[in-house]
Design brief:
Elements lengths: L1 H27 L13 H10 L6 H13 L14 H36 L4 H15 L2 H15 L20 H27 L2 H8 L4 H39 L4 H10 L3 H29 L1 H7 L1
Helix pairs in contact: 1-11, 4-5, 4-7, 4-9, 4-11, 5-7, 6-7, 6-9, 7-9, 9-10, 9-11, 10-11, 11-12
Length: 311
């Protein structure tokens, strides 16, 4: 119980510091949400600022915003006046979660087997080619990969749509294919390289040499003794991988025109939509904290030594 309370306090402080830093940086940036309203009469501009509390001091704005957040209200959106930030996030979060979840599933489902396969054939031509392509996957950024995928599969081959989403994914399931691949490729490459390095280290361990001496087959050694310890670094990598997918979704969602969290964050930052940016940062921060907690629990379940260290 004490450990849970400590983790909860740590998560709350982390989110508060994150939100406070974001609030300060947004207010310190030049410009404001209504700077483009140059033709508006002074009384209209004053009414807008009063509605969104921009006529108050920054400290008063910060205190009012924190009070609203404590009640679960992320405030109105400046850029989308007909919607609250809660409404926009409720629409965008499932889209980003689906896209990111499929991307992570692709990265792990293909990265782990490819890494194991490369480790079992270490030094071979196939191993070198796989690591070469993995290096290219890490080197090419998402804002290059995404347009190349559109150019190849949408413009040239006409196999998949170039972007868009529709009212729901069920309107056109093919819309998710290219965004998920663009998000998955760098993580797939890193997962393959990480799995290969971990598997090579595990295969050379002394306890596996002893198991071989007892006459165990290579297949049994791999699945019964090597795969679980070799997957520990991959499990630990899941947290930064998910963070990478969250941050990379901003580029991918902009390229493919997907109404997700990353796209709202970019548009909110460009238009000084303070409440929208702060709401996205808070929700994403909470998700990252929850993901880190789940990954730590998974690692502790897989490795009893971690449970003993935390106890």
């Amino acid at each position: 119980m004490k450990r849970f309370a400590a983790r909860l306090l740590e998560a709350t402080l982390t989110l508060w510091l994150l939100a406070t830093l974001c609030f300060v940086l947004l207010r310190a940036a030049p410009g404001g949400p209504f700077d483009t309203e140059k033709s508006a009469p002074p009384e209209v501009r004053a009414a807008l600022e009063a509605r969104y509390r921009l006529d108050r001091t920054p400290i008063a704005q910060y205190g009012a915003w924190l009070g609203d957040v404590a009640r679960g209200d992320l405030g109105p959106s400046f850029q989308y006046p007909d919607y609250t930030v809660n409404d926009l996030i409720a629409r965008a979060l499932p889209v980003s979660a689906l896209n990111g979840g499929i991307a992570l599933l692709l990265a792990v489902s293909f990265g782990v087997p490819l890494g194991v396969w490369a480790a079992l054939r270490a030094g071979s031509w196939w191993d070198r080619m796989l690591m070469l392509f993995a290096g290219l996957g890490l080197a090419v950024p998402k804002f290059v990969v995404a347009p190349l995928l559109v150019l190849l599969f949408a413009v040239t081959l006409h196999w998949l749509p170039a972007g868009g989403w529709g009212d729901s994914l069920f309107d056109s399931p093919r819309n998710i294919v290219l965004p998920a691949i663009a998000l998955a490729l760098p993580n797939l490459a890193y997962c393959a390289r990480l799995t290969r390095a971990s598997m090579l280290e595990t295969l050379n361990a002394e306890y596996l040499a002893a198991a071989r001496a007892r006459g165990l087959s290579e297949t049994r050694l791999l699945f019964a003794h090597a795969l679980k310890p070799a997957s520990m670094p991959v499990v630990a990598w899941l947290s930064p991988a998910l963070i990478n997918i969250v941050t990379g979704s901003a580029v991918v969602e902009q390229v493919f025109g997907i109404p997700g969290m990353g796209r709202y964050f970019v548009q909110g930052a460009l238009n000084r939509d303070y409440t929208l940016v702060l709401g996205v940062v808070l929700v994403v921060g909470a998700l990252i904290v929850a993901i880190n907690t789940l990954v730590d629990a998974l690692r502790a379940w897989m490795d009893p030594r971690l449970r003993d260290a935390a106890a």
